[in-house]
């Protein structure tokens, strides 16, 4: 009988915490996938809360909330990483001692240095196999925004160096693009660009009266947000641009929305609310540039979330998008401001029937081929020979 142990995020957090909704959803879908395929699954959460004082939680001492299990740690920089490492070590040790007669797997939903340090002593036990999803490479996960202060500039390079040199501790990797295989070569792996929910929602949603284009996620200039906003401003007509999230483009968006009232900035909202807006929108867009090196290692999880909403999606042709998605997206051919303007105008001009058809086609695609139950089943099959 296989035993599975997973690390994942959780959305229990303070208002001031710096959290990633996408990361939490990604981890939860992985958890649900294992539970759907295996009878005996253990899990432990690392709550996705910001560091003190951004988050008012100085100590995370909750061991259980409902059916969820947690690591305990001190939420202060450096102490947080050390105490997470220690807490995880003893959690795995206790779990392994109970299951030492079985073939055991420990599955991480992302690469994190405290995880790698915690598993060093367990490499002497041949029965434990360590598996890690790689939604972001350590080399790029700190570089989406400029700045970061003295601590980031001094310690992040060392953090990345140590993390990359400890990657050999992982026995099997789950990459989101084929290009990641060149970063950690000679390791058993598979490609899984993302996971969709498995709940079929047949609720009929009325689209907004005014044709609307929506983006939800990280609002960084590196992700094409400035080009998107500048392109929309140049479009004439009774349209709206809905923007959700946070990032280095917030001030720019707020200032330009005072000039063009068609631009609606909603900031950070609960994911359930964002999903409703996605269903109400006419079009969804992912403007992430393709010429930045990190985009080869990127498949934005929002693309699967977008498709799941049943609303048509415009996206740039990221290298990490597999060919089986070609029939469910409208692709940006020219990533200049004028290029974005052109594709947005073309899609706004399409009739409601065509937009409805392509939206439903995308929704069926992810429900049938990318749902969490099927995706994790593929992973489990790959692990049988590990």
What can you tell me about this protein's structure?
This protein has helices spanning 21-37, 79-98, 113-119, 138-141, 149-165, 225-233, 250-259, 271-280, 302-309, 337-349, 352-369, 372-383; strands at 3-10, 41-47, 59-60, 64-65, 68-69, 73-74, 104-108, 128-134, 172-175, 189-191, 211-216, 239-244, 263-267, 283-286, 313-316, 330-332. The chain has 386 residues and is an alpha/beta fold. The strands form four sheets. The chain has a six-stranded parallel beta sheet, sandwiched between helices. The longest helix has 20 residues, at 79-98. The protein starts with a strand and ends with a helix.
Overall SS class = alpha/beta
Order of helices and strands: EHEEEEEHEHEHHEEEHEHEHEHEEHHH
Q: Which ranges are low-confidence, i.e. pLDDT below 50, for 5 or more consecutive residues?
A: 1-18
The number of helices is 12
Which strand order do you get reading across the main beta sheet?
2-1-7-8-9-10
- Residue share in β-strands: 15-25%
Largest sheet: 6 strands, parallel
């Amino acid at each position: 009988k296989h035993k599975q142990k997973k690390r994942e995020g959780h959305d229990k957090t303070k208002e001031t915490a710096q959290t990633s909704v996408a990361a939490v959803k990604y981890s939860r879908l992985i958890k649900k996938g294992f539970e759907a395929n295996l009878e005996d699954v253990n899990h432990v959460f690392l709550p996705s809360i910001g560091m003190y004082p951004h988050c008012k939680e100085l100590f995370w001492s909750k061991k259980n909330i409902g059916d969820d299990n947690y690591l305990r740690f001190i939420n202060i920089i450096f102490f947080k990483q050390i105490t997470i490492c220690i807490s995880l070590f003893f959690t795995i040790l206790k779990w392994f001692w109970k299951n030492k007669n079985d073939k055991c797997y420990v599955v991480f939903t992302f690469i994190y240095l405290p995880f790698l340090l915690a598993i060093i002593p367990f490499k002497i036990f041949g029965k434990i196999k360590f598996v890690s999803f790689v939604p972001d490479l350590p080399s790029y996960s700190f570089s989406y925004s400029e700045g970061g202060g003295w601590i980031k500039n001094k310690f992040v390079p060392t953090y990345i160096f140590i993390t990359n040199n400890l990657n050999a501790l992982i026995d099997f990797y789950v990459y989101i693009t084929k290009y990641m295989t060149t970063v950690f070569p000679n390791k058993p792996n598979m490609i899984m660009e993302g996971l969709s929910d498995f709940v079929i929602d047949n609720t009929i949603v009325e689209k907004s009266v005014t044709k609307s284009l929506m983006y939800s996620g990280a609002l960084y200039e590196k992700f094409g947000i400035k080009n998107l906003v500048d392109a929309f401003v140049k479009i004439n007509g009774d349209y709206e641009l809905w923007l959700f999230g946070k990032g280095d483009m917030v001030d720019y968006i707020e200032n330009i929305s005072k000039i063009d009232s068609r631009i609606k900035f909603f900031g950070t909202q609960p994911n359930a609310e964002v999903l409703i807006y996605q269903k109400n929108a006419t079009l969804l867009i992912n403007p992430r540039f393709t010429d930045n090196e990190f985009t080869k290692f990127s498949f934005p999880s929002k693309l699967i979330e977008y498709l799941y909403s049943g609303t048509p999606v415009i996206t740039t042709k990221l290298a990490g998008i597999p060919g089986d998605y070609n029939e469910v997206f409208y692709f940006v051919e020219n990533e200049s401001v004028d290029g974005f303007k052109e594709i947005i105008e073309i899609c706004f001009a399409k009739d409601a029937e065509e937009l409805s058809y392509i939206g439903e086609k995308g929704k069926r695609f992810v429900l049938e081929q990318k749902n969490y139950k099927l995706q994790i089943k593929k992973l489990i099959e790959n692990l049988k020979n590990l």
